[in-house]
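Hey Z.,

So I finally got round to the NAP thing we talked about over coffee. Here's the setup:
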Amino acid sequence: MAMILDGKETAAALKEELALRLAKLREKHYEPKLAIILAGSSKPSAMYASFMQKVAKGYGIDAEIFRASDDVTEEELGSLVTDLSADQEITGILMMMPLPKGISAEKMIALMNPDKDVDGLTETNAGRLTAGKAGLFACTPRAVMAILDHYKIPIDGKKAVIIGRSNVIGKPVSLMLLSKNATVTICHSHTKDIASITSEADILVAAVGHANYVTADMVKEGATVIDVGINRVDGKTVGDVDYEAVAAKAGAITPVPGGVGSVTTTMVIENIIAAGEKLAK
Ligand code: NAP
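And the result:
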């Protein structure tokens, strides 16, 4: 039976490290502040905004929600993003998605100061990741890396296969694994005979968005399986991996819930602190 890679345990260990980094920032008299942009009346966005405000406050980080109505114009929302990007008191900006109809997320993201982009959405940060430079990178891929790091899963020289190539998960996690010297293969909806590729993987990351997509026959004996998927099936949250069958064959596996998702918000906080460390210099 596979070792369980516990996201909550990983997050708890990181919390201690983050508290130390926050204390160092405060020694420099820098108080980080998060700006959360909540445009429109989407209930899930409102819930996520309040949740993130609570999480930030749990770390003693001030977090303010900046609201805009459903009929906000691109010009109005754009000037809010521009103002927050320039505001010396703001360390990080989180923009709730999706934005109201008629507002281009791409245009809004382009207005964001990349050094305050704590969700890692800007092209500047995507470019920095590709170029192997420091930056603020997407939080879910970083949660994957944090779990591998916490459980000391060897990456250097290992074969890593990622199913999914989205800009928010598949691509960044592939680059992060590459930067740790894995030999990386990315699979997607046009990949032929995926099982023959995934069954070679020492580390298999599933970011597909289909429940039970990864079955035991697709996994190498003893592999590390990271399930990024979040799917609702019969009122339950499940990942992309057929958990019971794969756990019987893998060497290590993340559960859903309680795996990657449990570390993602911690990575947002880490990005706020990292942004503060750069701004405080
Ligand atoms: P996405 O943008 O829909 O991307 C899915 C990827 O899977 C695409 O690259 C797609 O290929 C590929 N794909 C789809 N069907 C496939 C198939 N039959 N065979 C092989 N590849 C296939 O999704 P995402 O935003 O990356 O999210 C992926 C999953 O992670 C979702 O379940 C999402 O809910 C979850 N998620 C989790 C967290 C967390 O904190 N744990 C955060 C965000 C998202 P093409 O590019 O060819 O279309």
